[in-house]
Here is the input.
Amino acid sequence: MIPKFLRQDKNRATAIKSPKSKDWNPATFYIAIFLLIGSNAIQMITLRNDLVSFSRKADAKIGLLKEVLERVQRGEDVDVEGLLGTGNEEKEKEWENVLREIEQSEQLWKSKAEKKAKRSTKAVTQLDPIAHEAATYNASVSTLDTVQTAVQSRATAAQGSGHDRGEASRRPLAFY
Here is the structure.
């Protein structure tokens, strides 16, 4: 006697086939894209809020420094240590954090500016033969235009002043 679950039945063997794989749901792509876009939107919102709070803190600290400097320049008796929080560890840490964040943001801006400058100089050096030829052409055209206008103005001035006599009108024009 063999229990039913251990018996090998031909009907059961054919009945237990692997299920046919289902087609890919077309909505899966849109769900994944919307999740990605939504998470990026949330990230952008948090970055914007962080930037706004940083700007407020930095502006407040800079405003406080300006106020203290103005008072000192006016000659008022000012408790600089008290206003700026010297001796108070919490305020000193706040100042350190604000100064560190300002330095980091300045370094970031400088590095971006340097990268941009390198890219632009690289593009100019790659296009240098063309740019040099164009600049040379533009300079020669502007020089020719200047000479032509000067000759025309001298010629009209000579005609108007009565210098149409003989060799005087045939002399080369001198440019000073």
User: Anything to note?
Assistant: The CA atoms of residues 68 and 79 lie 9 Å apart. Helices lie at 10-15, 27-74, 80-84, 89-126, 128-161.
